[in-house]
């Protein structure tokens, strides 16, 4: 236990020591989204009955911040360690691939949840959506952060430099996040794009998380939970396999 917890603590300190960049900056970005979209569309869009657009937007922005920062934590840490050569010091330890996985994904979950909580607290100054099912909120926040932390781990193992990691984030993570229903309900889309949205696992994370606030969603939260859980198990199996064989970190 001491081995993986030490690595976990090191990863927590890595992002916390620059919290102005890793926590405060994403919170500010989310608030800007809320100010712009909430101000423009508040009186023109109503997705759920009795729910204002600004209140509808808050859970999406919180979850988007959780996902993006969980991914950024594990991916940037591994790529930075590989470029600087400091990964060799971790390789010299008798840590198993399970220890690596738990430490990197666990710290990513912590960062994602810290940023998400920060976004939620700041948005309380603008609107206060009532959490009707808080357990669903916690489940989807933790599971979503774990899924993106694991994807970040895979991206960090694959990428040899920062521009490769940026390509992974800009051409995969960002589009899937923005097309997941953060700013809208997929029911407002044409039938073809509704079907396309159902192929996006990020949609199920956003939709299930939003259900915890309003008790309303585009699909059943149990379906979302099953799909997100299966997706996390699949990417976790791949990440653990890559760590076990030392993909791009053991030469």
UniProtKB/TrEMBL annotation:
<keyword id="KW-0812">Transmembrane</keyword>
<keyword id="KW-0813">Transport</keyword>
<feature type="transmembrane region" description="Helical">
    <location>
        <begin position="20"/>
        <end position="41"/>
    </location>
</feature>
<comment type="similarity">
    <text>Belongs to the ABC-2 integral membrane protein family.</text>
</comment>
<feature type="domain" description="ABC transmembrane type-2">
    <location>
        <begin position="17"/>
        <end position="246"/>
    </location>
</feature>
<feature type="transmembrane region" description="Helical">
    <location>
        <begin position="171"/>
        <end position="193"/>
    </location>
</feature>
<keyword id="KW-0472">Membrane</keyword>
<dbReference type="InterPro" id="IPR047817">
    <property type="entry name" value="ABC2_TM_bact-type"/>
</dbReference>
<dbReference type="InterPro" id="IPR013525">
    <property type="entry name" value="ABC2_TM"/>
</dbReference>
<feature type="transmembrane region" description="Helical">
    <location>
        <begin position="112"/>
        <end position="131"/>
    </location>
</feature>
<feature type="transmembrane region" description="Helical">
    <location>
        <begin position="137"/>
        <end position="159"/>
    </location>
</feature>
<keyword id="KW-1003">Cell membrane</keyword>
<dbReference type="InterPro" id="IPR000412">
    <property type="entry name" value="ABC_2_transport"/>
</dbReference>
<protein>
    <recommendedName>
        <fullName>Transport permease protein</fullName>
    </recommendedName>
</protein>
<keyword id="KW-1133">Transmembrane helix</keyword>
<dbReference type="InterPro" id="IPR052522">
    <property type="entry name" value="ABC-2_transport_permease"/>
</dbReference>
<feature type="transmembrane region" description="Helical">
    <location>
        <begin position="83"/>
        <end position="105"/>
    </location>
</feature>
<feature type="transmembrane region" description="Helical">
    <location>
        <begin position="219"/>
        <end position="243"/>
    </location>
</feature>
<dbReference type="Pfam" id="PF01061">
    <property type="entry name" value="ABC2_membrane"/>
</dbReference>
<feature type="transmembrane region" description="Helical">
    <location>
        <begin position="53"/>
        <end position="71"/>
    </location>
</feature>
